Amino acid sequence: MKIIQYLTELPENKEDDPGTKKSRTCKTKPKNQDGQLFNVESHSDKQLRHFKFLSVSFMSQLLSSQSFVKKIVEYEETEELQELEQRLLEEVLHYINTVASSVEGNMDKPTAKFWRVLLSKCYDMLDKVNALLPTETFIPVIGGLMMNQLPSVRRKAMDLLNNKVQQRTKWQKSQILQLLELVPELIAIVKCRKKEEEEEQAINRQTALFSLKLLCKGFGTENPATFVPVLKTAIDLISSEKEEKNVMGSALLCIAEVTCTLKAQAIPQLPRLMPALLKTLKSKKELVSNEIYLLSAVTALLKVAETLPHFLSPYLLECLLQVVHLEKIVAEFGPSSQISVRVASLKTILATRLAPRILLPAVTKCYSEVVHTRKNCLGPLMNILKEHIAGMEKEHLISHQPELTAFFMKVLDFRTEHAEDDLEEIGKIEAYIIDCLISMVMKLSEASFRPLFFKLFDWSKTEATLKDRLLTFHRIADCIADKLKGLFTLFAGHLVKPFAETLNQVNISKTDEAFFDSDNNTEKSCLLLQFTMDCLHKLFLFDTQKFLSKERAETLMQPLVDQLENVLGGDEKFQERVTAHLIPCIAQFSVAMADDSLWKPLNYQILLKTRHSSPKVRFAALLALIEVAQKLKENYLVLLPESIPFLAELMEDECEEVEQQCQKTIQQLEVILGEPLQSYF
Q1: Which of 52, 60, 270, 550 is the 20 to 30 Å CA partner of 17?
Q2: What is the spatial distance between Cα 663 and Cα 6, in angstroms, rounded to a whole number?
Q3: Its Gene Ontology molecular function terms (predicted)?
């Protein structure tokens, strides 16, 4: 200890040596006087540094030398020795402080490296002192250091405690009781908010919260009562308006650990904890600017929800509102980031750990709150409901089906309520809603699905003013057809006539009337055509039960073929619609008919379009013709005699593109039918 005190009194470097300062006794003696350990004036700067380094190295080696450690082990641990060990630790920590400030002061000077090496040597010495202490002594010594006047010593004491708790796995009962006695002292540090050294205080309070978290993790399960005050203190902290953000982050992580450990004993604290926790999640600006704080808040809510899901119902609506909003914030961190993973876990807990009678009313209320103000939160909300439905027991689903149906009838009006908004954005949100509905449909029996489907069907054609509902319904039909495949034909009989009518009503070659009464009529009409054709295409594709009877085929034939001349939306839209949606639909239609008495009129109607005044329509008709031939293969031979005169006309078409396409069509027909056709022209 005396060596350390002496080193502390030496100046930082030679220039700083105040020959006149009376406080430095060792330097105020006359030069010739003996008994002076190290004369600063008669040695160089380098020698002064060397002396300090050697002194610290000597102590470090001595404290770990076998002979010295043996003496300590043989010596009985008395109060006197314990006091000496505590004082030695204090002295070492003081000296570390002195060296650390020199490191900062000399950062830009040539001696910077020396000070860093000396500091590391001092830490080495601290470890050696620490290693000498038996655990029974270590804990009271640390307790004593935590009461020290200097904030830095208090912090280092907590660091030593944290390292010890993290490194050791086995503790005796008496040692655990000793450790738990430190809890009130740590709580006192957390509560301490002196104005001076504010930054220092904040770091110390964070360290104390971390110590409490570690102690709770290690010993809280066996001794829960000790940690109830810890939870109360942390809740006080996050409830305070003026608290420093980093301290709050540590408090939130402490809450997460303590709630997890206390389980049922934390329930009485929920009425204070949940509002405070949800309030921190509300201040989005602060969360976004500080990722660690955001992560801490999410972790706390996750752990509370994980530990006590059945006690969340009074706060569930607010939880849902915060979680669906959070998903949008964390999206920018990327899906594999820790924060995104935790928000996803939180959504899963809300979706899977709560009973439908609790979650469904909360989801309905949450929808009403966000539908007009924060539309982009609807996707995450629907995903929570989708996951909930996926995990529902069959009897629960049956008993809650009326409630779910009522909810879907309400949310499916989303498109109608936002009729003038951006179509793409509305489409994205509607996709989440339909996806969620489909997750329910897939779990229903035929007997329960049929009434639901016809309810939706009636809903879509109720009022003329709500034509946007048709868009939604045709999209639902398309999605259900995709999922139910061949089974959908059991319910789709009623759709044939309305779909045929829609195809005619949205065909500008047949009517001048706008189908939708809104500015974006054209875009909406194009979308409606796309959903209708895609749904029909799937019906024809999965039709194994002779769904397409002669009567139904005749109902659909003309409206479908007439779409070849429907140039709604301009050239680009027309071309995209014809190649991606209409032609695959017509070709599959020919396969589903499976009847040559119906192929003939279909082929003839397509051929008639090759005489249309617009070259674009003639070109589209040729594309349709070859696609049908590819599907029918050698069956197309019976239709060939009828097609040749039309193709011969097109060989001399005034439009070069049509003429080239005609030659290409003839070549493709030769390949399909395996016969040369050039002799016919």
Answers
A1: 60
A2: 104
A3: snoRNA binding
- Annotate 441-464 with three-state secondary structure: HCCCCHHHHHHHHHHHHHHHCCCH
Q: How far is CA 12 from CA 17, 49, 287, in A?
A: 8, 9, 44
pLDDT of residue 274: 97
In the structure encoding, which two tokens stand for residue 148, read together?
Answer: 């020290």
Please report where in the chains the tokens 């002496």 appear, as a residue: 6
Q: Which residues of 50-64 are buried (b: 16+ CB within 10 A; e: fewer)?
A: ebbeebbeebbeebb
- Whether the CA torsion 553, 554, 557, 559 is positive or negative: it is negative
- What's the pLDDT at 72? 85
Q: Are 440 and 397 in contact (CB under 8 A)?
A: yes
**Side-chain half-sphere exposure of 557, counting CA atoms within 13 A:** 20
Question: Rounded to whole angstroms, how far apart are CA atoms 599 and 631?
Answer: 12
User: Distance between alpha carbon 4 and the CA centroid of its chain, in Å?
Assistant: 53
In whole angstroms, what is the distance from residue 119 CA to residue 100 CA?
7
Asked whether 250 and 230 are in contact (CB, 8 A), the reply is no
With beta carbons less than 8 A apart as the criterion, state whether 156 and 125 touch.
Answer: no
What per-residue confidence (pLDDT) applies to 466? Answer: 79
CA gap 94, 151 in Å, rounded: 11
For domain 224-353, give the fold: Son of sevenless (SoS) protein; Chain S, domain 1 (1.20.870)
The answer to whether the CB of 568 falls within 8 A of the CB of 506 is yes
pLDDT reported for residue 122: 92
DSSP string, 131-195: HHS-HHHHHHHHHHHTT-S-HHHHHHHHHHHHHHHHH-----HHHHHHHHTHHHHHHHHHH---S
Rounded to whole angstroms, the Cα distance separating 39 from 54 reads 16
pLDDT of residue 644: 94
Q: Where are the domains of the chain?
A: 224-353, 355-444
577 HSE (CA, 13 A, CB side)? 26
Q: What is the DSSP letter of 653?
A: -
- Residue 642: CB atoms within 10 Å: 12
> How far apart are alpha carbons 142 and 182 in whole angstroms?
9
The enclosing H or E element of 90 equals helix 79-105
- Look up tokens 């995990």; give the residue: 391
Report whether 450 contacts 491 (CB < 8 A).
Answer: yes
Q: Please list the ranges in the chain whose pLDDT falls under 50.
A: 20-34
Write the Ramachandran bin of 402: left for phi over 0, alpha for psi from -120 to 50, otherwise beta. alpha
Helix ranges, 263-355 (H): 270-282, 284-289, 291-307, 316-330, 338-352
Q: How far apart are CA 619 and CA 639, in angstroms?
A: 20
pLDDT for 534 equals: 98
For every residue of 200-255, DSSP letters joined together read: HHHHHHHHHHHHHHHHHHHHTTT-HHHHHHHHHHHHHHHH-SS--HHHHHHHHHHH
Q: What gap in Å lies between CA 161 and CA 35, rounded to an integer?
A: 41
CA distance 89 to 91: 5
Residues with Cβ within 8 Å of 519's Cβ and at least 6 positions away in sequence, in order, are 420
Distance, in Å, from the CA atom of 29 to the CA atom of 22, rounded to the nearest integer, reads 10
* Per-residue model confidence (pLDDT) at position 198: 67
Question: CA torsion 418→423→426→430, rounded to 10°?
Answer: 110
Predicted pLDDT of residue 30? 40
Alpha carbon distances (Å) from 578 to 20, 475, 658:
99, 19, 16
Contact 309, 352 (CB under 8 A): no
**What separation in angstroms does the CA of 308 have from each of 36, 168, 221, 227, 236?**
69, 30, 16, 17, 20
Separation CA 240–CA 547 (nearest Å): 68
